[in-house]
Amino acid sequence: MSTDYQQAREALGARLRDLRLSAPGGRLTGEQLAETYGWNKSKVSKLENGRQTPTPDDLRKWVDATGHLDAYDELLARLRGFESHIRSWRRQLAAGHKPVQDTHLSAHENASVFRGWESAMIFGILQTPDYARSIFTRYAELQQSPRDVEEAVRSRMRRQDALYDSSKRFHLIMWEAALRALICPPSVLASQLDRLAGTIGMDTVQLGIIPLSALLKIPPATAFWIYDDRQVIVETWHAELWIDDQDSVNTHLRTWKTLQESAAYGADAHNLIHAARRALPRR
User: Fold this and answer.
1) Fewest 10 Å CB contacts: which of 54, 80, 237, 268?
2) Total-model pTM
3) What is the CATH number of the domain that holds 39?
4) Is position 56 within any domain?
C-alpha cells in the first residue's frame, strides 16, 4: 500500500478520534463506542489508527454515537478520496521502472492467493527476461521515463520466486490475443510461449486461457490483479489504481469469475499456446 494512501487513512482515523473525544454529550471511550454497536473491541482502535478502512455505515454510526452529525459529509468525502487510490505513472516512473517493480515485489511477499486477468500480454510473473526487456523498453519509450530496463528486469525475475513457494497460489486467466501480440521479436515470443506452456501443471499455478472463439458474458477489458481477495491493482495508460474498498474488490472478483467460465485449462490451454507458437512468422 502506498505511503500517501496510508497517510490519508491515518488522517481520517485521527479525525474520528477527535470526534469521539469531543462528543457534546461527554467524552466516549473506545469500549463504549464499540459496545453501542456490538463491534469487536479492537475495531475502534483499528479505525482510529488507520489500520482498517471504515465503511460509509461505520462513519454514519460514528457521528450518531458521538453527536457530531454535521461531520458526516466531511468524513464521507475523505473516505471517497482514497477508496480508489490513483498512482500516476508520471510520478511512479520518475526514478525508473525498478522502484515500481520493487513495490509489486513487496506486495507479492505479503499475499498468498492471487487472481489475475490479462488480455494484452503475458503476465509479468510468467515472463522470460527477453520478453520483459521488450515490455519495459516499449513502456519507457511511451512514458518517457528513465531507462533502467536491466534493473527492472532483474526485479521482475525476483518476483518469480513466489511461483516456487508452496504457501502461495496463482489463479491466472489470459485472453488468447495475449499469446499472439508481437510486442517483441518472434523468436522472443516463441521462447516466451515455451515458458508459458511449462507453467501448466505447476502445483502453485492454475493457468486458464480464453480462446478468441469463446463465447463471452462480458468484454475482455482491462487487466487486473486481486491479492487475497482484499486488494485490486488495475493498470491504465496513465496510472495504477490500488483499490481496497470491499464493494470494488467484490466487483473485480465477480468479473474474474465470469471470465473464468470461458477459459480453457490443461491440455486445451496447451493446444492454444502451441497453436500461437506455430502461427509465428518464420525467421
Assistant:
1) 237
2) 0.72
3) 1.10.260.40
4) yes
